[in-house]
Specification:
alpha+beta, 6-stranded antiparallel β-sheet, 3-stranded antiparallel β-sheet, globular, disordered N terminus
Length: about 300
């Protein structure tokens, strides 16, 4: 396997060890920065950027007029590409903050429960709904002009808290983002850990149900209730995340990756991949490669 992951830019951010966060509020005509990752947490807002293609992990989406994304993994690659955006008045607000701002003390306090859960979910990247964006827009709009550092921090914390109460969508797959599974249910966690370890093998509903002493019918209902996905969709998503990771990190043939990740029919795999990712496996690999820069 030829590993190419070192071709991802590791951004050195302007965040000082003596500051709680760094903010850049700028107007631009195009996005030119290549795909990258960095150890700092990042909240990124874009306005008037309809048609821009946002890549976060193995999530590839074309965004609308407003977009707000939170990323809290140092290994999760991301980029905003110009794509079909024609706007000459793009506004981008980027806030970067250190994980040490919260962990390991403040974040475990009860008052920060919702923020902690949001930051954990954002290890895979999360995108907020339009209603959530409108909820915090006035605060975001004024944050960069706040001259008092203490009040700037309290306003930033308020933004995070308001967002933690809003709807968001998880972007990247856990197996692509290299994030361990988490669940409040011990039984669900047991099943998820088994799937993560054995996704390349054939996994059956009766096999998993038997692991936690449930009937297949009861297990299906239980799993869907706890995870929001039926079992077959969940397994497919884990396999697709592993596929995407191998497409990015290796030069292995696509057919080999398909079978190595648990799919047993190449044409069926290609159809599922295109339906889920909006492009073919070959196009997905090329999208990543063309934006990578050797540093």
């Amino acid at each position: 396997m030829s590993n190419t992951s070192s071709h991802i830019i590791r951004e050195i951010t302007p965040l000082s060890e003596r500051d709680c966060f760094y903010i850049a509020d700028r107007y631009k005509k195009e996005f030119t920065y290549p795909i990258h990752c960095h150890p700092e947490f990042e909240l990124n807002f874009t306005e008037h950027a309809s048609g821009v293609r946002r890549i976060v992990g193995d999530s590839i989406e074309v965004i609308g007029e407003y977009d707000l994304v939170l990323i809290t993994s140092k290994e999760l690659e991301h980029v905003w590409e110009q794509h079909e955006c024609k706007s000459s008045e793009i506004r981008e607000i980027t806030i970067q903050f250190s994980p040490e701002l919260f962990f390991n003390n403040l974040i475990v306090k009860n008052q920060f429960n919702s923020i902690r859960k949001m930051l954990e979910a954002a290890e895979k990247g999360i995108a907020f709904s339009l209603s959530a964006i409108m909820r915090v827009y006035p605060m975001l709009n004024k944050l960069s002009s706040e001259t008092d550092g203490f009040y700037a921090v309290t306003k930033f914390l308020s933004i995070l808290y308001e967002l933690s109460k809003c709807q968001f969508k998880v972007l990247s797959n856990s197996s692509f983002a290299k994030i361990g599974v988490k669940s409040d249910s011990g039984r669900v966690l047991k099943i998820q850990e088994f799937i993560s370890a054995h996704y390349a093998e054939q996994i059956s509903l009766p096999q998993l149900a038997d692991m936690i002493n449930m009937t297949p019918v009861s297990f299906s209902r239980f799993f869907k209730l706890r995870t929001g996905k039926n079992l077959s969709d969940y397994i497919i998503d884990i396999r697709l995340g592993a596929v995407a990771r191998m497409l990015v990190d290796s030069t292995n043939p696509i057919s080999e990756i398909c079978y190595d990740c648990g799919f047993n029919n190449l044409s069926n795999f290609n159809r599922i991949f295109r339906k889920k990712k909006g492009c073919s496996p070959k196009e997905f690999r090329e999208n990543y490669r063309k934006k990578r820069v050797v540093v």
